[in-house]
Amino acid sequence: MKRAANESMVLMRRRRDEAGIAGSGLRGEAFALPELDWSSWTLQADEEWVRLTDGGSLPDQGWKIHCSSEESVAQAVLETVSRFCHERSATFKYVPTVGRLAWRNSKQAPAEAAAKFITLYPRPEQLEEWLVELHQQIGDVAAPSILGDLRWRGGPLHVRYGGFRLRKVLGSDGRLVPAILGPENRLVPDVRGTAFHPPAWVELPSFLVVQRDELRAADPEGLADYDFESAIAMTAAGGTYRAVRRVDGVRVILKEARPFIGVASGEATARLSHESRILEQLIDVEGAVTKVASFTAGGHAFLVLRAVEGDTLNRILYSQNPLISADSSVAERVAYRDRVLALMRRVSRIVHRLHAKGLVHGDLHPGNVIIGGGDRPVIIDFEAASDSRDVISEAAVIGVHGYAAPATIRGTKRDEYALAAMTLNAFVPLSFLHDLDTGLLGVHLAAAREAFRLDDGLCASLHAALDVWHARSIENADDPVPGPADLNRAAGPHEIDDLTRRVRKGLSACIDGYAARAEVVRPAGAVWLMPADGAPWLDELSALQATGGLSRDERLLLMSSVGRLISSAARPSLTFGLLGGLASHVELLAGQKSPGVEALVCRLRDSLAETDDLGLRDGLAGIGLSLLAHEVRSSSPSTVRAVDEISRRLSNEVVSVDTWLPGLLDGLAGIAVFHIAYARERGCAASLARARALLVQALGRCVSTPDGRLEVRDGSRTLPTLADGSAGLGLAIILYLAEVGDPELERALPGIERACSAELVIHAGLFDGRAGMMLFLVELARSERGSGETSQIVLRHAQHLRWSAVRTPEGITFPARDLERTATGLAHGAAGVLIGLDATSRLLRGGDALASLPDYLSLCAGGR
Questions:
Q1: Same domain, yes or no: 17 and 85
Q2: N or C: which end of the chain has fewer CB within 10 A?
């Protein structure tokens, strides 16, 4: 939401305090602006940035100034920079909390986010003056360098040319990437590389030429001994590069560590120096990566390793797991099992050689094992290694979620735990859920035993190694886990009803726990579809209402939330679309027969001039669907005109796979859904033709796998999911085919069905998991365009939801998108799973059909 800055800052601080966020997780203590008059400024805040502007407009692109900072001095840096901007009414943005900055300054941060704390947007004539003055005011503070930027005089300020507002274009890897306008007035990728390389057509100001040349002249020794070929990975902590040693042509890997990064977990250069010393002890250990050299250059530490040809164990195993296929034979599963066990025996032998040296690896996971020719493993990344006799504090223990033992487990037992987790995850890669519910260990072992015919001795040893929590019981919770013999069969009506009942109980308990609070702050990082501002838990309440009704207290809470929504929705909104924007407000209030709906519809009609986005989630397609539904209910001439205007705009826009994803929520399929709905209401053949053209383009971005799955290509991966993948595209195709037959489009459905038929699905949720695939398959079965097995596949998915079901004292919930906590929302949480279960139950009982995801959202919002 946009608000006057002073009001917004007070509200942000109050909500963070009430949520108990200070000092925790990625949020941490909020940074504070100096006590100045910010009343004329507008503030926009989200998880990543707080943006402040004092009117005026910015160009679309240009030279921007980034400021980095080490966490301990960041508050002082922000005060200096914000005063500078306040004096000049200059737009700027900053990272909102200490915790978030610590993440950007950590090894885990992606290169494009690494070390960026504050961003300023000078005009060309202001750039040098601002750099000089800010450098003088800030001084020489501890600050990491920013990848891809030109550092100014060795201080915290950096410069790069790029976009001032977010525009996107299709990149070379098939993903949408940030874009800037090129010399031919066409959008081109806004490249954010590892070195300072402004676009070729942009003239470098003379003062930046001087700075660049000085840095080049100071190229440190050491790096000159190697010819760099490519970057393997880039993070805030540094890069990992492929290179060739010039003197003898030996292929090597260079690991870089940058100063002032990763302070919370041990500064990056110190960690790399530690790894170098560990590798010197392993020079004669077969299967451990070999150290070649180490040196320091320009303040950055480098460790040179002998190159290992091959791929990570993680990529090999996941890509070849038979459970990701639409179907696989017993022979294929047994062959895969035998290879996994042979690989893990070899990895285990290497680990035991480390233990014989008195060392513990400390961070074993499949990404740290390279599989070379002949399935020979090599273990890499010894930053966390330690003497097995050392007593390490719990705070110093690191590891990858799902493979790291609890901090109370010490010494070689940490590696033994990781080996067992790697073995189980090779079959059913869901061990990261065991922290949420220890009972899932038994579920996953039973599933692996049945699917891959694991022997009882192996399962017993894995259970003994991984059951470090001793299966903590959850008081008053019935065991939702079926017996081993039931895991891979299709669920029946009784099982679906039982699971649905428990999910509803879990959602109701979650709502009841917060209903008494006057001010509710949602958990950080979660994604909701229904409007959040002033009206919490609408996702959950809407899903419960649509799938079985509400209790008296829940109805009262919904009525209260609707009232608060009406009072808050008049404020300017960042988005207007159907998923979380103003259009979802309209659908929700219409379903509650609220008298405030007309005012919101008027505001929604007015929003068209403010909306550039075309998609379903945040743009014209979503607004159009909401207004179409209102038009049917009210026959308002103003709404009819607004819908016609949306149709004209969507028809005149150049929408193609060059600038748009193919998916449902943010892509071509979602725009096609509006054209289909418009054609149905207006009898407009031209709109149907436009929808078909978009769907054909979207199919052109799909790829067929060897086993016949049709999935959306997204860079190096393919997606079968509802939000961005082929399941959402399939829903749009089904909706189109309900209006007119089309053999070409119909031929895509079997491949999409196969894509949604895999037994192994990591996420359970609606947008990116099993529940969304269930929704597509249900509609495919209803359309009678599926295979003879479609209904059985849906029921098998319903049974496999138990692989992710997390018990609570009251019922069942499901993991969030990050798989490290639970979530209740529609997008990625339990409310979305309830959608899939309800759709499946309707299929079994012959209930009313739901034509598409937008229809379902209208239902969940009370639209019908």
A1: yes
A2: C
CA distances to 537, 573, 597, 611 from 582, rounded to whole Å, are 17, 7, 11, 12
Q: How far apart (Å, rounded) are the C-alpha atoms in residues 757 and 707?
A: 11
| Cβ partners under 8 Å of residue 416, min gap 6 | 465
Neighbour count for residue 681 (Cβ, 10 Å) = 15
Q: What is the CA radius of gyration of the chain?
A: 28
Stronger pLDDT, 171 or 413, i.e. the higher one = 413
DSSP summary character for residue 204: P
Residue corresponding to tokens 């005026």 = 56
Contact predicate 766/665, CB 8 Å: no
Give per-residue pLDDT as tens, 724-759.
999 999 999 999 999 999 999 999 999 999 999 999
Residue 119 is assigned to a structural domain of this protein: yes
Cβ-based neighbour number of residue 468 at 10 Å: 17
What's the average model confidence in pLDDT over 376-399?
80
The CATH number for 72's domain is 3.30.2430
Lowest mean pLDDT among 128-132, 296-300, 316-320, 618-622: 296-300
My answer on whether 443 and 468 are in the same domain is: yes
Tell me if 716 is assigned to some domain. yes
Given 306, 327, 356, the domain boundary residue is 306
Computed from CA positions of residues 400, 406, 408, 412, in that sequence, does the dihedral angle turn out positive or negative?
negative
In Å, what is the CA distance from 791 to each residue of 78, 322, 749, 788?
58, 22, 15, 8
Which pLDDT band holds residue 842 (cuts at 50, 70, 90)? confident
Report the distance separating Cα 463 and Cα 409, nearest Å. Answer: 16
| Residue among 527, 484, 486, 430 at smallest CA distance from 770 | 430
- The backbone region for 453, taken as left when phi is positive above 0, alpha when psi lies in -120 to 50, beta otherwise, is left
Same domain, 14 and 103: yes
Question: Last residue of a domain, which of 306, 339, 364?
Answer: 306
Domain holding 48, by residue range, is: 2-168+195-216
pLDDT in tens, 448-465: 999 999 999 999 999 999
3-state secondary structure of 255: strand
* 631 contacts 604 by C-beta, under 8 angstroms: no
pLDDT tens digits, one per residue of 108-154 = 788 788 899 999 999 999 999 999 999 999 988 888 989 889 999 98
Give me the phi and psi of 702, to 5 degrees please: -100, 155
User: What pLDDT does 403 receive?
Assistant: 94
Give the CATH number for residue 406: 1.10.510.10
Amino acid symbol at 732: A
- What 3 state SS string does 434-490 have? CCCCCCHHHHHHHHHHHHHCCCHHHHHHHHHHHCCCCCCCCCCCCCCCCCHHHCCCC
pLDDT digits over 470-494, tens only?
444 444 455 544 433 344 556 678 8
Percent of the chain with pLDDT over 70: 83
DSSP code of 375? Answer: G
Q: Is the dihedral of CA 537, 435, 234, 273 positive or negative?
A: positive
Report yes or no on 285 lying in a domain. yes
3-state helix, strand, coil in the chain (%, to 5): 45, 15, 40
Is residue 234 one of the residues assigned to a domain? yes
Cβ distance 664 to 616 under 8 Å?
yes
CB 244 within 8 A of CB 226: yes
Same domain for 199 and 147, yes or no, is: yes
For residues 228 and 210, membership in a common domain is answered with no
In this predicted structure, the answer to whether residue 719 has a pLDDT above a threshold of 60 is: yes
Give the number of domains in the chain: 4
Assess whether 272 and 326 both reside in one domain: no
Residues 250 and 376 in one domain: no
Identify which of 833, 839, 840, 841 has the alpha carbon closest to the alpha carbon of residue 855. 839
The enclosing domain of 244 has a CATH number of 3.30.200.20
